[in-house]
């Protein structure tokens, strides 16, 4: 017996885990996905999201309560719909076209008593000012009075084995008390703890606050790392020491820049709204963007300097790059800082070799030769640049190869290794 029928719109990094969890909670789940090939693969038991193993997907399919589909007719008759579609930036402006299209597709299937939950990251006001009117126009019903509407941000951290959807507290909201109760009731079945907030705008802002906080603090340590090096101070030693403080400090570490779907984009949703609504500049966000966006330039300058120490130019050198994914143990290469680093090195005339078994071949930039990271690959290189600390990187071989290494993750140690 099922506890209700759920549709999850968008079967990506966010939507697929939600769908799996809803199956686990006893719902009959339709994973609606515009990419028909993805829907076919999911129904065949092939998962494109690392956090959902083929076994977990197979288990869900075997219950007979999960199916993916690209057919809008399959949306009919849902109790709860979750919208988890992309929210990119287009030309410096939030691109909400995916949300608009998902809401318009869903609208004719909204019935009296249904619940619709937006889960995509977006600026405050989207749920009530953008999604509600689209759902109302397409259904002929009134949000709040006839159907429930709310927002619940996703906190999923791809590749994190400790904090998963079910044990990470989930912020929930509704446009009115009945909507909040419906949204909370749904997620109470899926996760261990829900955190109700006063309204949808507060829930939308919560997600942007979390990511802006992270973005700003990463920019802080990135800038500090550059200054500390020029001052001859080991910033990593200072970070390790500061991290022993049990209160009032949170550890963030320098890196080659920020990537993924969230950090390079979400804070700009907030600064765009502040600018548009208040005519003011969100200075912290602008500053953090400036620092983090220039980290790839800094990495390339450090490579130049290390090659210079060997009386070599970037032009004509072979650079072995570790990592194209935006972070460790994921195949996600969206907005990855590795890409501008590789492109700048190529523009300067370097031959670039890449080790990253996680990302799909189609993601690899033109002209880059893929390698597996053997001792022979290292002996081909004038320098190695360690950008992503995947668990399956052969770090002993890197450190023992006698090749200069720029380690941007503080994961390697040895006489040939320099840190960011
Ligand atoms: N990836 C993360 O770690 C993460 C974490 C928290 C929040 N978010 C947010 O969640 C949202 C989704 O991100 P994601 O990483 O899952 O993206 P994704 O690209 O992995 O998945 C989105 C899926 O939606 C599909 N899609 C697009 N339009 C559709 C439509 N109209 N109908 C049906 N399917 C449609 C796409 O084909 C894609 O498969 C974004 O707003 C993102 O910012 C992502």
Descriptive account of the structure:
There is one protein chain. The chain has helices at residues 15-24, 36-43, 54-62, 97-106, 126-139, 177-190, 200-231, 235-242, 266-278, 283-293, 295-309, 338-347, 375-379, 395-399; strands at 5-9, 28-32, 66-69, 80-83, 89-90, 93-94, 115-118, 148-151, 170-174, 194-196, 318-322, 351-355, 369-370, 383-386, 405-407, 417-419. The chain has 420 residues and is α/β, with parallel strands linked by helices. The strands form 3 sheets. An 8-stranded mixed β-sheet has the order 3-2-1-4-7-8-9-10, with helices on both faces. A 6-stranded parallel β-sheet has the order 13-12-11-14-15-16, covered by helices on one side. It has a two-stranded antiparallel sheet with strand order 5-6. Helix 4 (97-106) runs parallel beside helix 5 (126-139). It binds nicotinamide-adenine-dinucleotide. Nicotinamide-adenine-dinucleotide (NAD) binds at residues 9-15, 32-35, 38, 84-87, 98, 101-102, 105, 120-121, 154, 156, 158, 261-262.
How many beta-strand elements? Answer: 16
Ligands present = nicotinamide-adenine-dinucleotide
Mean pLDDT: 96
**What Rg is obtained from the alpha carbons, in whole angstroms?**
23 Å
Structural class, from secondary structure content? alpha/beta
Unreliable segments of 5+ consecutive residues: none
Global shape: globular
Order of helices and strands, N to C?
Answer: EHEHHEEEEHEHEEHEHHHHHEHEEHEHEE
Specify the helix fraction band: 25-40%
User: Count of DSSP helices?
Assistant: 14
> How would you write the strand order of the largest sheet?
3-2-1-4-7-8-9-10
Name the beta content range: 5-15%
Q: Give the end-to-end Cα distance, rounded to a whole number of Å.
A: 56 Å
> What does the main sheet amount to?
8 strands, mixed
